[in-house]
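Sequence and structure are no longer studied apart. To make this concrete, we show below a single chain and its fold as tokens.
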Amino acid sequence: MRGLSERHRKALEAFLSRVRERLRDVEVYLTGSLARGDWLLDSDIDLIVVSDELRGLKPWERYATLRRLAPRDVAFDILGYTREEFERLQAFRAELRNPDPLLRLI
């Protein structure tokens, strides 16, 4: 997480700690401006969370569940996928010319 603002780094650390407590088998990827390195101080934190424990939840339920784990004073955009859904996303991304980077955090 080098190169991030202190505000972003602390918010990410708090989220990662909480998500590890909530989900046993989880991967978290950073994407968007923070992953590209062109962020601003007020940029949101774009994350992809992958866990089969999200299965059965509607997309907005996944978001609400994951957003509650993030600090409220920093904007987050969090997408939650099962492993199967993430594999399909990765196959789609492989067809794109210049997809945003995905940096695995955990």
Notes: The chain is about 40% helix and 20% strand. The first strand starts at residue 27 and ends at 31. The chain has a mean pLDDT of 95.
